[in-house]
Amino acid sequence: MNAVMTAGKQTAFVGVRGAIRCQESMAKHTSWKVGGPARYFFEPQDLDDLTAFLQSLDSQVPILWLGLGSNLLVRDGGFDGAVIAAHRGLRAMKYLGDGRLMAEAGISCARFSRFAARHGRAGAEFLAGVPGTMGGALAMNAGAFGCETWNLVEEVDLVDRGGAFHRQSAQSFAVSYRKVEIPKAHWFTAGYFRLGEASGQDEAITVRSLLEKRAASQPVRLSSAGSVFQNPLDDYAARLIEASGLKGARCGGATVSMQHANFIVNDQQASANDIETLITKVRETVADQTGVVLEPEVRFVGEGQ
What we know:
Blueprint: E1 2-6, E2 9-13, E3 19-25, E4 37-43, H1 47-56, E5 63-66, E6 72-74, E7 79-85, E8 93-97, E9 100-104, H2 109-118, E10 121-122, H3 134-140, E11 143-144, E12 147-148, E13 153-160, E14 165-169, E15 175-176, E16 179-180, E17 186-194, E18 196-197, H4 202-217, H5 237-243, E19 250-251, E20 254-256, E21 264-266, H6 272-290, E22 299-301
Parallel strand pairs: 4-7, 5-7, 6-22
Antiparallel strand pairs: 1-2, 3-4, 8-9, 9-17, 10-18, 11-12, 13-14, 13-17, 15-16, 19-20, 20-21
């Protein structure tokens, strides 16, 4: 039995083997390096461990599924729920033959891209430029360089709130730009992908060139969450932000990147509130000056202070 102390009493998680920590600072686990504490922070060892945790967790406790913490802003007041750190335990990856590959939710997109290339498969090169996990890529139809995750998906595995697993075909989901309609209280645990056959070293060269392009155009060495806003139809959020004179705009320790206007970086010990305030300022200014209302690509969770 795994037991933790919370609010002065012991809470039991029967059959759970993975680490559970209380009041864990989310600043340690988000790419912006901000965020207050989570009530529970769970690192599953495998799928059975995940089931045990979900079956033991009070049904009223909210759940946040965490990958590498990109595209996520946890507010300074923290998250009064359970964070499941998929990238710590759900890391199986297999080549199934006939161009099919399986990756669990905790596998990084970059690692999956390299794995596909090693097995002579083409089509996943763009994932080398996605700063997250395959679980996150499935949940938001992540993309880069004009390509999208769900163009590769054949099937997915999901877990529900009760710890039961379900396999569904890609066709059973409504998928659009940076959006996937997922059944309530379900989370992706794995994806099954079909990729084309690679030709020689072309894919390795493509991956390298895409990573070089990303490093040249994005502030990859600073704390950010990736692109903050979705690109509107037939335009680019970065162009609109720059045209609105917002490059270098600052709120506290957060600033709009001078290298790429659709990135907000934490370069001076920003708070989550600094970042959210700057996001709001950018959105309102662009709307006032261009008439375009930018939609955040970032997910906001938790409470302010």
